[in-house]
Write a structure and sequence with these properties.
By secondary structure, this protein is an alpha+beta fold. It has one domain: Glutaredoxin, CATH 3.40.30. The chain is about 45% helix and about 20% strand. The chain has a four-stranded mixed β-sheet with strand order 2-1-3-4, with helices on both faces. This is Glutaredoxin 3.
Length: about 80
Amino acid sequence: MPNITVYTTSQCPYCVMVKNFLNDEGLTFKEVNVQRNQREAQRLVKETGHIGVPQINIDGQWVLGFDPESIMKLVQKEG
């Protein structure tokens, strides 16, 4: 099972879509709300160069935004 972390904010509709998609696919993930955790927000921007959410880290590979096709490509590569 891949290691998935989803970086979100509280009011982001695309973040909800990503979480629902992952749940529907039966994939477990950790959620980090960067709106509530400024240290993680700064780390995320430093690591990816992007401030927008959602950002999904799948075993060290990044997907920016709600992109089911890219998510599944990375998940299947791991599996």
